[in-house]
Amino acid sequence: MKKLFFVFFLITNLSYAQEIALLKYSGGGDWYANPTSLPNLIKYCNQNINTKIKTKPSTVEPSSPDLFSYPFVHMTGHGNVVFSDSDASNLRNYMISGGFLHIDDNYGMDEFIRKEIKKIFPNNYLVEIPANHAIFQKPNTFSGGIPKIHEHDGKRPQALGVFIESRLVLLYTYETDLGDGWEDQEVHNNPIEVRTKALKMGANIINYIFNN
Fold this sequence. Notes:
alpha/beta
């Protein structure tokens, strides 16, 4: 029933501005990090890939029924993350029903988020997404896979995912800091080419969600 509702919601809202949301989680981590990143990504996508997304993202909690109102939910931070059983169950149902969760490690989240992803999908593994996957091909080509935006400790950037019946439902970007690249220029003083690269990859994520 939830799946049918989610599909109906998307179909009936194609001609209207859609909303995306930031996940407000528990555990003490700074879920509110990078406050300018999603508004900038929305602006870029509306100008460059013809989306109609409301300019101000919403905030939603993992166990809220409102989760099903958003085709895309973004999660970031530097620290601890804790999902309750009801959080994990609701997030799992959301993604199985057609929703998409993007988790962007803002450096420091990795040791906590992996066990929480396992709580959501105990029978599914995080796998590295190959560079030939559609999310790296349209509308911008990233032949090497996920781009590196910020350097921290020399590790290579990775795009990891959970697939349900061949559909990517959860994207975990690690050692790349896409959200930092989406932020206002003066926040991190990234050169325009780095910010553009991050925004183009973000546009690919949004494009994938709205077309798969």
